Amino acid sequence: MVIDIISAAVTCQMQCVRCDQPATLRCKSRCGYTICLECESLEGHCCQLGVNYNEYGFPEVDSIQYKVLFDKFHKENKGTKLYPTQNYSLNLDQLNAWVLAVEQSGCPSEIVNFAHTFVKNLTYIGFDLFHEKLNQVAQDIRVQIAALAPAKVYALIGMNFRKSTTWVALLVWDVLTTVVTNVVTDLKEIPIEDFDSNIAIIHMDDMSYSGSQMAETIDSAIASLRPENHYFVLVPYLGIAAKRHLLRTWRHLIFSSCTVEIATVWQFLTWDGYDPMEIMTKLNDPVWYLLYQVKSTHNLIYFNHKLADSVSIPNKMLAGLYVADAKGKVLQTFHAIRGCEQTVYKTDQGKILGPDVSLTDFDEKSTCPVAFYKNIKYTFNGAVLENTRQPLLEILDKMQDSWSMCKLGVMEFASQRYCSFQATRAADKETKISRWFSVDSTSTASGRVTFHAFSCYAVFVQRSNSDESTTIAKPTVQVIVTRETDVRSSLG
After folding, report:
1. Residue 281 lies in a domain
2. Which partner for 159 in 164, 207, 391, 395 could form a disulfide, CB atoms 3.0-4.6 Å apart?
3. Per-residue pLDDT tens digits of the chain, which is 492 residues long
4. Is residue 485 part of a domain?
């Protein structure tokens, strides 16, 4: 398939030369080309492979984009597998019963007042609402990007596909794919020279609680960022404190007006008419802190698709609502989340969670709700993704059909197939002449092959799985340069 396309590209290019039309074969939006009539049969094919052709009909390495891989990854994984079905809504009966029990327990008034604020303001976000809000934010950002008309648009999808960023990207990809020109797993993957133009970056996640993780990512590229860069934060829910933190990191960030901002415990206590300093001082007493582990910066929100860590929310309280007397002796336990009543929560240290156990984070398999996106069985070309130690795009790259050399800017080459442009057999019957190219062999160490328009060569390509003494990554490509020819005479 790929060989036929590459061969057709060369034939098509020759026709364009003969009809004295511009021979540029470049992808446009919706996989169109600027080509002459004889080349119309090629429309869409090479664009789907992420390949552009220079004015001489040869693939350009710089045009190969990882977006092609992610488009394919999205197409294979979109749909109901991304949608959680189990309900983990608030158990209002248990919450109200807990408040009543706290009022009757004889515990300090500060604890009673906090209990009222906690139950009044705790917010549960079901998946349907989350998905709706996420799409609203994505639609808004897409409109903003279209109006700005940036030179390029990079979508930051995260390195580890078990994290929420990849899941969120897949959920909104139908909205964003028409404006995104490439995807990256790290800001450092964006060419340094691109920051000098009006590029746009889309940084997405399900929510930013404190802003620390996003700020760390932004800070990693702070030396490259320019005011003219359009840096969008695509999150449906955002902590008010997180927004301040992020803007301190890079004041040119762009947020959607559709994003819902979430207040902290301190803010809720203030709005409810209490003295937050007084209540937080009591909650920080050793007895009460161990029971509730509440911080003034916590957001009072949780999602159907996950329970965040103790840096972000009072997750120990969501695992178990304890009622204690004035001395801190536990009298009763209630459960805030419906469907989690029988869960045996464990800490990341392997301890069973209890009133006297400090919690930094949960064991990811012993919590409720378990992070939904960590258990999605993503596939690519029908194979399940399992290796989480490598960046997602590298994993997809290695899982391409038959080790697609088209991604490197050359045709996919199998031992018994060769390009019809130049079908001359070599002396070695196991090797075929692929076509006329000038090869910069020094680029092959990084898995890249660079082509030049004039002074092309007959290039022999064969697969090699044997160990090499060089640094060339396997599977390797052996390139043997023979005689030089003139590309113009080949085309004539």
Report:
1. yes
2. 391
3. 333 333 444 443 433 333 233 333 333 222 233 322 233 333 333 333 344 444 444 444 333 457 878 888 999 999 999 999 999 999 999 999 999 999 999 999 999 999 999 999 999 999 999 999 999 999 999 999 999 999 999 999 988 999 999 999 999 999 999 999 889 999 988 888 899 989 999 999 999 999 999 999 999 999 999 999 999 999 999 999 999 999 999 999 999 999 999 999 999 999 999 999 999 999 999 889 999 999 999 999 999 999 999 999 999 999 999 999 888 889 999 999 999 999 999 998 889 988 888 888 888 889 999 999 999 999 998 889 987 778 888 888 777 643 343 333 333 222 222 222 223 333 333 333 333 333 333 332 223 332 222 222 223 333 333 333 322 222 223 333 222 232 222 222
4. yes
Answer yes or no: do 271 and 332 share one domain: yes
| CA dist., res. 188 & res. 179, Å (int) | 21
Q: 3-state class of 262 per DSSP? A: strand
Q: Which amino acid is at 387?
A: N
Please tell me whether the overall predicted TM-score, pTM, comes out greater than 0.90 for this model.
Answer: no
124 neighbors 304 (Cβ within 8 angstroms) = yes
Number of structural domains, the chain?
Answer: 3
Per the domain annotation, does 85 fall within a domain? no
